[in-house]
Write a structure and sequence with these properties.
Length: about 300
């Protein structure tokens, strides 16, 4: 049977491997119309029906719906257009499935309750714009009017999480914890106090801004003392404290005195909030950055050392 030969549904079934019922279904919907009908009304198909059925089967296997398939086989829309649109739809489905997998993996790892799982899923499936608004509200509370300063703008950007479209389970878990942390009023207030202290230090320290320098001073001076096991309240710590306060005073253009040590102690106590360090660690996980250095040990040492040397 070639050329202008006509085929019955049974013939098509044998040539394509489809069932008679399936071919009749496609025929009834106009996807594979018969070329003509025989004397008793049974359907006869041309050779092009074989090609159409092969195409229909392929498109169905790819998940296309019947109305779209009919438009393709009737050439109302091109196959490349359909393929591009369907590929994008599949990409969206894949992202959703991967996100669900990540949420379930995180739930299994954390041993979450149903309530926690529901919250995790809600937070994880927020759109990128919704996630930005949630974090933007937090950063706006922290920096507020201070954000006009270019330094604060840079800090704000550096504290913005960017959950990827295809997150790993630990990134979803980190995002959920960070989102919850950012909504904690006490944490927000503490971060705002730190930002205000930073602004005050910048006002005294000129345009360079001492916040990063102050942390570097503490790390560089106290780190070796901490490694050497020097007790922060012992006399052996005196030269370390003097070096830290002298360099901090230099940053502010001030001499080392009780007022300056009070100022440094307040700055250290504000910066030493463990929730701040946790936020930065979660941020690194979400954004795929290296884990940040923990300054808590040197901050703890410095706070003890200063408290021991400031008259009560």
């Amino acid at each position: 049977m070639d050329g202008d030969a006509l085929y019955s549904i049974g013939d098509l079934a044998r040539r394509t491997g489809l069932t008679v019922k399936t071919i009749r279904f496609y025929s009834d919907r106009g996807i594979v119309p018969p070329a003509e009908r025989g004397p008793t009304g049974y359907r006869l198909y041309g050779i092009d029906a074989v090609a159409r059925l092969d195409l229909v089967r392929t498109l169905r296997d790819l998940g296309l719906d019947l109305p779209t398939i009919r438009k393709v086989v009737d050439r109302e829309i091109s196959l490349p257009e359909v393929a591009a649109a369907h590929a994008e739809a599949l990409a969206t489905q894949i992202r959703v499935l991967r996100l669900r997998r990540a949420v379930l993996t995180a739930v299994a790892k954390r041993g979450s309750t149903p309530k926690e799982m529901d919250l995790m899923h809600k937070l994880a499936k927020l759109s990128e714009d919704e996630r930005r608004r949630l974090i933007g509200d937090f950063l706006g509370t922290v920096f507020g009017d201070l954000d006009a300063d270019p330094a604060f703008g840079g800090i704000s950007r550096s504290m913005t999480p960017e959950l990827p479209d295809d997150p790993e389970a630990e990134q979803v878990e980190a995002w959920v914890e960070l989102a919850e942390l950012s909504q904690d009023p006490d944490f927000r207030a503490g971060m705002r106090r730190m930002a205000e202290r930073y602004a005050a230090e910048r006002a005294h320290g000129g345009t360079t801004g001492p916040r990063r320098d102050f942390a570097a001073v503490v790390r560089d001076q106290v780190g070796p003392a901490l490694a050497a096991g020097i007790d922060p309240v012992s006399p052996r710590a005196d030269p370390v404290v003097a070096a830290v306060t002298a360099q901090y005073g230099h940053l502010l253009g001030r001499l080392d005195d009780i007022d300056l040590r009070h100022r440094l102690l307040a700055l250290l106590e504000t910066a030493n909030d463990p929730r701040r360090e946790r936020y930065l660690r979660l941020l690194a996980v979400i954004n795929g950055w290296p884990a940040p250095e923990s300054l808590a040990p040197v901050f703890d040492w410095s706070i003890q050392a200063l408290r021991a040397r400031i008259p009560g």
